Amino acid sequence: MSLREMAQEIGATDASPQKIKHHLMQLQKKGFIIIDRPRGVMKAGAEKPAWAKGFMEKAKTLLRIPVIGTANCGPATIYAEENYQGFLRVSSRLAGVRSPEGIYAIKADGSSMNRADVDGRKIEDGDYVIVDSKIAEPKNNDIVVAIIDGKATIKRFIRDDANEQIVLKADSSNDYEPIYLHANDDFTISGRVISVVKKPTRVN
User: Fold this and answer.
1) What angle do CA 64, 65, 67 make, to 5 degrees?
2) Is the pLDDT at 144 greater than 50, yes or no?
3) What is the value of pTM for the model shown?
4) Domains, the chain
């Protein structure tokens, strides 16, 4: 599709091709699209050289996971409305998934989950947690991202049926009070934490 045809498709028939190209470049810069055939250099069905095939096979293990804001690891005090911050480029082995479908990353803020163990990795301030948003019904003791009054917090989910309450518990070396909720309260489980990507260790 030519730039002029793109303009017609979006109802911007008066837009110049350069304006359409500018918008495409901005989308690529933000990570929403990849322009892999500029000016029609690569034709459909064209045979790729051997080195390119090998590179593409290796690239399949590198995921692009959207980073959606920050979640507090103490009280629920940081807003979690969709706050797109770009993409986390991470190995599928580190992310614990083969596909990024339904997966997002959120940056941990605080120390209330620094004893939580996710496949041998603690959740510490500045780490990225990888969240599976397809898991909206957590099991007891799952680590989740909960949205309370539009704000996010990372906690351990405990269903206390005997007392008709849900407890969001901190796993910390410090003393943090749990959050107690009723099943009918206005809150959402935004997914289960499935892995942790550690912030780089500072080398002196």
Assistant:
1) 130
2) yes
3) 0.65
4) 1-38 (no CATH), 62-197 (2.10.109.10)
